[in-house]
Amino acid sequence: METVKTMLPGWRRMVFAIFCFCFCAAQLPSQTQVLINQVFDQSGKALSLKELSNRKDLMVLLFLGADCPLSQKAITEATEDLLKSGGKDRVGLFGVLVARDDAEDINRLKEEFKANFPFYLDKDNQVASNLGVKVVPTAVLMDPQGKILYQGRINDRVEELGKRSMARRHDLREALADALQGKPVRVAKTETVGCPVETRKTTPHAKGKVEYFRDIQPILYRNCGACHQNNGVAPFPLADYEDTTVWVETAIGLIENKVMPPGQVISDFPFANESPVPTPKEVALLRQWVSEGMPKGAAPKTPLALPPTDPDVQGLGKPDLVLKPEGPMTIAATGDDLYRFFVYKLNLDQDLKIRTVRLVPGNRKVVHHSIVWFADSDLQKRISTDRALSDWDLLPGDKGPGYGQGPMLLKYLKVDPKSKSTKFEMIGGYAPGNGCYKVPKGYAITIPKKTDLVVQMHYHRTGKVETDFSSIELFLEKGAIDPTKEYRATNINDEKFFVMPPNQRKRTQTAWLVEEDCLISGFSPHGHYLTRAQTLTLERPDGKMETLIHVPRYDINWQRLYTFREPIKAAKGSKIHVSSLMDNTSANPNNPNKPPKAVFMGENTTDEMVFPFMSIIIDKNSKWDIGKQLNSLYRTGAITMALKKAFGPDKSNRKNNEQNTIGGQP
Predict the structure, then answer these.
(1) What is the spatial distance between Cα 184 and Cα 197, in angstroms, rounded to a whole number?
(2) Domains and their CATH numbers in the chain
(3) CA 459 → CA 370, 469, 582, distances in Å?
(4) What is the model's pTM?
(5) DSSP string for residues in 149-183
(6) pLDDT single digits (tens) 190-217
(7) 641-652: b or e for each residue (b if 16 or more CB lie within 10 Å)?
(8) pLDDT of 247-277, one tens digit each?
(9) CA distance 666 to 664
């Protein structure tokens, strides 16, 4: 009897454990339950996942949103991964569209992205919900019995929404390779970044304190409308009620994380081209509107007009010169972003005085940003005939004029320390919402004779082959120009920065001496993938400190030129302090190396630098050598190249797809 009594507690525990196991198992879809899930073809016919998996060793469900730009790119990337894994005949690839997508979306995606696999509709997001898919694109790899072998991202190109890096790991491709060889998948689950799967139901006729037309549309048009419209550069529109209900929660997340609007800065001085940013009160209204079911409200008698896609163009008039590149540029569907230089020939026999430079993107979907220089014509002829540079960084499918930024470009960029003039100098740039570079009234950009314009284009690949043919508009200064002053561009180079050790996060510090009285017109902060924040501070001769520009979330994908509303007086003896917060840890989503490696100073984006651009106004007859920082860049570069050769990663790790940003001069 005593033995029975002592056994009872153990039996109770066993029964309780079995009950808990059965209860938990009931909450998760079993393999059989997974295959019972149904999707719908274009005609509305229901098919179970079991029917799709027939006659294939493996099945990939690629969950997509038809209007999500990351999903569109995933169509091509997943197809490439399937081919490169060697499983084309053994793996069934199926696109599953979520949210409000329909048969028309299937036809559009097939036509635009040349998809050679079937698409199905997930009505009411039932399959996505049952499999725990909350973000698109998401890939789900399973065997014929419905066992999920891998679920997550296609690759790690995007680790934070709104920010892109280079692909370091092709997760789906590796999972396919493991499964096809009968091996356990090394990494069975990854976190997916993309567009959220829509789960909230809209109630347009509901009564709420916040309404779309009265409260929400004005906020979005004022802060987001220049880019987020059908003809804008942004990846999704926020132009009408229907668009907004789909994308508003994505937008709120980007706004709260200060990713959007892009390039947000803090300064003690107002900017002429500062982008509007939603206030905390406006963000709270957006959230309240979502929580109330997104009521539509009454449409106004006079519809609110969308803002222009390029607000800076207002009042410019007709350009005096329009320049075209030698031909169009074709950009392949997938791969890392492409940086490429194009020469816009001027054939000048006299100097030009310019008040405004405007780059007009030929294809807003792919032109991410650009930087414009003038450069010696003869030098450009020599560079353009260098076949190694012409082919640098091009992927199969890339084709067009211009040249890339390879290490061999440095041999053309010798700076004469005895010459006041330079063979190249930055004069402008383009970023979405800021397409013009304007000089303060009373001054002008001087483009010297015997020079051409050179543009570095940052191209973003969209998942399909694209073509760009961007132009440059020049507006001459025809008014009075101060004959005693000269408008110039220069740089600040941190000569002490040589290497960022792995697994460290620290700030750099350098100071730039103002050698003569001058006016500071504007800045373009600059670093590469390790740079997380950058601050420029003006120290007056009396010790007073003022913030010129602070970028709390620096992003290499957004290269902007910030022009002060009024040029800032800086007396001789002042100092401009530059500090960059650098992060060479695995926590940095932009880090080009995982695990982290030592990153040396250099002009490739997988190198690093502290090299902000600055536009200043100095005396016409000044003896101030404002180009000496460029000389110091090459001296520092020579030292770091020696360090890299002795202590850095070997050549096999220096991939040919390393790309330069505005740190490299053409």
Answers:
(1) 29
(2) 31-196 (3.40.30.10), 212-307 (no CATH), 310-481 (2.60.120), 483-666 (2.60.120.230)
(3) 9, 12, 25
(4) 0.83
(5) EEEE-S-SS-SBTTB-------HHHHHHHHHHTTP
(6) 999 998 898 778 899 988 899 999 999 9
(7) beebeeebeeee
(8) 999 899 899 988 888 889 999 999 987 778 9
(9) 7
